[in-house]
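[#protein-structures] MJ: dropping CREG-like beta-barrel domain-containing protein here for a structure pass
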Amino acid sequence: MKLLDVVAGLSGVAGAARSPVALLDNSAEVTRIPTSYESAVMGRRILGLSKLATLSTVFPDSSSHAADGHDESQTLERRPDGLGGLPIGLMDYVADCEDDGNPTILAIKIGTSFKNVGAGSNMTLSLRWTPPYPPAKRISLYSRLAAYVPFLSRDYPYNTVPSQPSHPDVPDTVPYSAANLPRFSLLGYLEKMDATESTATDLAVCYTKKHPDARYWLPGNRIHESEWMRFVVTNVYWIGGFGDRAYIGWIPVEEWKEVTRAEWESMQLPGEKKGWSEWSVDQAGEL
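AK: finished. C-alpha cells for CREG-like beta-barrel domain-containing protein:
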C-alpha cells in the first residue's frame, strides 16, 4: 500500500454518475472524476442558489486617476497612496435573474468594486458552495492514515476530535471540510442592462426575492445611485474539491452557458438536506 494511494483516496466533493442527479454520489461503484460539463452543471446550481459572491477588482493607477479628475484618495474616500495595481476582493449581492449563466448585479456606483471597474479594471466574480446543514458524518482521515504510516499514531493530538472546542461559546461556523466542496471563479466584465419598465420590474422581483433589503437601493432610490449590471462570463475556473474525485481546471464557457435550468435543478449539492455524510475513505472500500 503506497502512501500516495492513501492520500489520493482522501479526496473531493463527489464522484459523478451518468446523470446530474447522481453527480455527488460517493459510492465506490460510481466514483469517477466528473467531466467539465458535469462540473458546469454543479456550478450553475451554485450560482442559482447563491446570494453572495466576492467581486475582485484592481485599483487604478493613482496618477492616471488624478488626471481624470477623480482623485478620490484625496477626497471622500481618502485612499492611501500606492494602491495602483493592487487587487481587492469585496463581498456583494448576486442573483441569477437571466438564467443564462451571466450573474445579475445591482451595482451601487459609490462602491469600490464599481469605481475600479469604471476606472478600467477587469473583474472576477468568485463563488463557493456553503452547505446549509452540517454533515451527519465527518471525513475519516487520520485513523485510516495511521494504519499505513507508523508515525501517525493515535497519540498525536490532531488524530482525534477534541472533546471540548477551544471556544465553547462560539459555534463552529465551518462544520465541514470546505476543501472538499466546490468553489469557482467567473472571469468577465460588467455590462449595463438597458432594462425597459417591464424587464426592470422583473429584475427587481427576482433580485429582492433573494435580497429583500435591496429594495432600499433599487434604481431610482433616494439614497444611492444604482443600476442593473450583467456580469458577462468569458472564462470559468473550477475547483470541485479534492483532486482525484473532482474536476479541477477550466470549464469551456460554451459548456457553462449551455447548461439548462432543468439540468441544474435535477441535482443536489452536499448538505442541501440534513443527514448527509462527507466522503470517507472507508466508504470507498479497501484502497
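MJ: nice. The radius of gyration is 22 Å.
AK: one more thing. The chain has one domain: 13-131+184-267.
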